[in-house]
């Protein structure tokens, strides 16, 4: 039956198992770039706007600082990229920041990085989806009118896609990312051409608005604080840069070199796009305000709460391409799509990091198994649930969500770079080769500079954004940290409790004989099979046990037992309250009391069925009894399954589940052993 | 540890197990009456009002028909009581209408009765709570302003109480019921005294309102139809009369006689209260309308949607005792409490009927186990969920809910009485004793009259109420009927599939040898125990099996294995994808393929932990593996538990769960065997 229907399917799509394995091909750079860069590149869709928003607090004149802030972001980006190039060479195993911090700074630093990254993944989903919805909304008004609803729908769709384990391919990432990057570059080039060559005056839709400064004529410390706040908002452009350092195993050889090159390309693209958009925004006179309803003025009057503030990228596109033009709509769609892809990367990263944490026993062990569907599902549902909560609480407003975003990123940047400095120190202590030493000293300098700069930014972000929402992110990190510490403690305690004593002299607890009991309700195939298997085991004594809940049935059972001449004694337990579990537990305990050195083996015939609702109809007493028996010392419980015809359905389902491919397979590369010790490879 | 803390508890409340058993004392009549009568007696709180409501459609002049309708209800009540006195004598086992119908009319009739009763239990909860809230609301305005919320809160409280298994005592029922009955009688007596002796004019709060007849001057068929509809609404007073026939085993001896006497007392009380309230309503000029907002006029103008129509019983109490007087408030509180107790009886009846249906394999087998907490919980949650849904949909409006109520009651009345006629026919066919025959003929006549009258009422109810909501009740019955038929079919099919072939010649499927495999991840106490137990079983071959997910760990395991000199060969399976389940399943299958006549015994060491969150941290791979192994033919799976220290907590919890007392113990009486054949006892 099943074989017949399988044949055409196999011809069409190949053997499922094989194709699963084949899916893990290595990535060439041109595919690796979009796979890993959708997250960092997509942040140029919201980062420039955030800078203008904050500056607007001091009035439109403060917009003149935007090039300087862009410059600061560029410097920071180059620093971070240069630093991570060192990571990629030194840790090609894909452990990422968590591995670097743990190896070099100890378990607590590692756990801090892990907590930061977990929060970061949640924020990536929330911010990217919110921003994607806003970009889509600039082309489709319905979307922006039902922002929260649309954002939740997109999260649900992404979640379902990832739960089902949709097969990923590099192309899925490549097309929207290249369209997005291409579109932004065309926009910058066409804008520059129109402005510089044609001498056109391009005006953003908000160019005629005025901004009511919340603090007019800001100077001194207050101005510096505001500029720092604008800068930390601009740092949103750096989120996701670290992703490549987790994905080195997915690259073609030479892995580290290719990963480093891709990283540089990504950094270059990101800063060009970021600066280009900032420049176009200045040229086209984009006006953004933190509270547009009151602070944005049209002919001197507040614009009111009905106004929707479109993202900078869409305002600029409107100015350059014209409202409603094909390129404008294409760019809006590509931007939204890339942002959704960026959110999707968190769906891969979250369970992947979970599996690494599970290996170190900070999370449940089962998360460690690669491609375990259930484990992935739990992680995905947790991620989606938290992100949905944030989206709903913050009204899918990317500006408010971004306040929570950047803390985690810079915690892991700083700790990872600090760890790298330690890494080089350790290697320099033993390295004799002068050429290699020079190389290491250079790398150490880069990482040290990176650590200082990202640490400084972290302080700036914390100081300028703490009350704006960064405290929520910090609280989230603390919750993850505390939970993981508790789990690790539990595992350690259990490991101690179950540690085997040395030497083979632990015979005191070993039972000498075994007494087997087969549970019987009626005589049918499952019980006959259980009896046959029980006999095979040749235990010291063997008896059949039944509970008398209905005297008539028990009498019939006894008669059939004799008629069939079953050569196992049948013991009947009375149960005036029609209970099953209690009499059996009490009987087993009495056996143990009679001969405490003997073990009791309880053999339970079980039906194996194929549908969940059949489970409601069968085995319930058996399951409950099993649960209770496990608490009784000196007992072992054996299930002898009898596969009903319907179990075929479940067997097929289980097979399909085994062949399920976990999301994120593309960026993870083929299965490799994660080494316990970091390798000392470098470029 | 556990023993020490148990001592004071045992001194204080006695040994839990014993007290559980002692709780099942038999009921004297004075306690049995309130235990069983809260449901039927409480219906006088809403039934009189329903009669007036329907009559008001033809205008206030139609109120003159109310004594005639009351008379019809009295005749019906006496008929039903007389009929059920026969049931109580003939079927003292407590099977109730379901047993009577099944035994005498066959399985389909029985299942119809069961479906009707299940719907009826749901409606009892919904109607009683809605009416209780309305009565409470006549004294506390807040309650009536938040009707739906309050009703849902009461349902949730009742549900929690029943899920926790609060110990019931007869007193719990006795006090509110007697206060309620006493209050109503004092009201009737005091009202009669004031009216007849003192000559006071008592006026209900609505006495001055006029009613706008929806159909003025109704005559002929239309009038008869309206009167029949009013009568069927009045029949709400009969709901719950059948409850005693389910509870005969709970009575003191002579059980049947005492139950019959209690039934008569209950009938007498109910009709007296019903008629008294109808008479007082007529005297005090109570005005009720189906749509009070438009049809109730004050000084010729519609009273508007802000008006809350209080129940008749509370309007009458206000007229007799005075608004806000102590007796008025006491009666309102007692009425509400009795109505909530009536709802509570459904919480007992629903799972109890479920357990009987489970015995006949119409519902999952585990429901059959008496006092099984999980089974009761599922039933209770289903009941509460459905009732909540109805309360929310119908806005906790007792008038609208009552339209759904009466169908189920009369379906079971009619089928049960028809069954009784068959019962007497069968017994008359073999009975020779003339005195007994006379008795039987008399009983048959009573039951035949009861069957005809209730059948007639059923037709009337269906015709007059079908479009008003009776169709919902019928649909509910169909759903229950279809589900139970499907479950029974499933059980029958499985029973056929697993039926043992006759004769001992079924050796072809019996394995000849057994190959044991112990799963090992690390060497610790649980695995050492599993190895020791596996050796005890003396299977034909024994090997230890580990999956190589981490080469370093596997190497360490191998070395320790040799160092400890464990005399079981260790087999290592490779798993490049860090999977655990698949390699083991494939290995077991390969063993089976090599020697198909051998069985494979897989022995899994398991941690037993005490808290649900610990389950998330342990045994997950083991559980999944077990689930998959059960689908593999020729395999048995043995769990060797290792009880961690924390498992003590769960052991205690399980013990408490065992000692849990199921709700409804009081009305169910002590455990007795339910006979397969009806006894022929009679009065």
UniProtKB/TrEMBL annotation, chains A, B:
Highest taxon of the lineage: Bacteria
Biased composition (Basic and acidic residues): 670-683
Membrane topology: Multi-pass membrane protein
Transmembrane annotation, as ranges: 65-84, 105-133, 139-160, 172-193, 218-241, 262-282, 326-353, 374-396, 402-424, 445-463, 469-487
Subcellular location(s) per record: Membrane
GO MF: DNA binding; transmembrane transporter activity
Keywords: DNA-binding, Membrane, Transmembrane, Transmembrane helix
Disordered: region residues: 648-683
InterPro entries hit by this protein: AA/rel_permease1, APC_K+_Transporter
Major subcellular site: membrane
GO cellular component: membrane
Name of the featured protein: DNA-binding protein
């Amino acid at each position: 039956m099943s074989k017949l229907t399988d044949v055409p399917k196999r011809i069409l799509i190949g053997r499922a198992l094989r194709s699963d394995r084949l899916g893990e091909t290595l990535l060439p750079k041109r595919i690796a770039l979009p796979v890993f860069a959708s997250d960092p590149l997509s942040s140029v869709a919201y980062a420039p706007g955030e800078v203008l928003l904050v500056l607007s607090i001091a009035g439109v004149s403060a917009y003149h600082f935007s090039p300087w802030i862009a410059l600061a972001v560029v410097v920071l980006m180059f620093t971070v990229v240069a630093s991570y190039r060192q990571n990629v060479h030194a840790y090609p195993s894909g452990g990422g920041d968590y591995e670097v911090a743990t190896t070099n700074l100890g378990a607590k630093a590692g756990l801090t990085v892990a907590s930061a990254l977990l929060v970061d993944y949640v924020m990536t989903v929330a911010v990217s989806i919110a921003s994607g919805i806003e970009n889509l909304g600039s082309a489709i008004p319905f979307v922006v009118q039902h922002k929260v609803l649309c954002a939740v729908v997109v999260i649900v769709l992404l979640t379902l896609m990832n739960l089902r384990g949709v097969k990923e391919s590099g192309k899925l990432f490549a097309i929207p990312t290249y369209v997005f990057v291409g579109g932004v570059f065309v926009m910058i080039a066409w804008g520059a051409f129109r402005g510089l060559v044609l001498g056109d005056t391009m005006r953003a839709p908000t160019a005629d608005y005025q901004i009511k400064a919340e603090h007019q004529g800001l100077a001194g410390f207050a101005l510096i604080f505001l500029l720092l706040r604008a800068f930390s908002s601009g740092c949103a452009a750096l989120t996701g840069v670290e992703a490549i350092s987790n994905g080195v195993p997915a690259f073609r050889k030479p892995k580290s070199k290719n990963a480093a090159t891709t990283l540089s390309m990504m950094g270059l693209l990101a800063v060009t796009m970021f600066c280009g958009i900032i420049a176009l925004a200045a040229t086209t006179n984009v006006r953004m305000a933190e509270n547009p309803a009151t602070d944005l003025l049209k002919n001197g009057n507040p614009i009111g709460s009905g106004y929707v503030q479109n993202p900078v990228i869409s305002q600029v596109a409107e100015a350059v391409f014209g409202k409603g033009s094909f390129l404008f709509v294409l760019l809006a769609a590509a931007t939204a799509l890339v942002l959704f892809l960026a959110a999707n990367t968190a769906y891969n990263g979250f369970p992947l990091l979970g599996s690494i944490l599970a290996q170190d026993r900070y999370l449940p062990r089962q998360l460690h198994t690669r491609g375990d569907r259930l484990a992935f599902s739990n992680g995905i549902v947790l991620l989606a649930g938290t992100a949905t909560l944030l989206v709903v609480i913050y009204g899918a407003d990317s500006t408010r969500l971004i306040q929570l975003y950047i803390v985690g990123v810079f915690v892991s940047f700083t700790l990872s770079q600090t760890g790298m400095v330690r890494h080089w120190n350790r290697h320099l202590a033993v390295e004799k080769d002068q050429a290699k030493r020079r190389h290491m000293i250079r790398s150490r300098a880069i990482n040290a500079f990176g650590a200082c700069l990202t640490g400084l930014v972290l302080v700036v972000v914390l100081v300028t954004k703490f009350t704006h929402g960064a405290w929520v992110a910090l609280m989230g990190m603390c919750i993850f940290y505390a939970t993981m510490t508790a789990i690790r403690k539990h595992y350690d305690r259990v490991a101690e409790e179950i540690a085997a004593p040395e030497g083979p002299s632990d015979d005191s607890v070993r039972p000498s004989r075994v007494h087997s009991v087969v549970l019987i309700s009626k005589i049918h195939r499952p019980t006959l099979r259980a009896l046959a298997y029980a006999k095979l085991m040749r235990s010291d004594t063997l008896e059949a046990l039944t509970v008398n809940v209905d005297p008539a049935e028990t009498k019939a059972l006894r008669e059939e037992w004799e008629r069939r001449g079953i050569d196992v004694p049948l013991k009947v337990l009375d149960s005036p309250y029609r209970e099953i579990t209690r009499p059996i537990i009490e009987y087993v305990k009495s056996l143990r009391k009679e001969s405490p050195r003997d073990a009791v083996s309880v053999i339970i015939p079980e039906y194996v069925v194929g549908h969940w609702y059949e489970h409601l109809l069968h085995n319930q007493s058996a399951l409950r009894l099993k649960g209770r028996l496990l608490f009784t010392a000196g007992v072992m419980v054996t299930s002898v399954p009898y596969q009903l015809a319907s179990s075929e359905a479940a067997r097929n389902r289980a097979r399909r589940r085994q062949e399920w491919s976990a999301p994120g397979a593309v960026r993870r590369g083929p299965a490799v052993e994660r080494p316990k010790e970091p390798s000392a490879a470098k470029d």
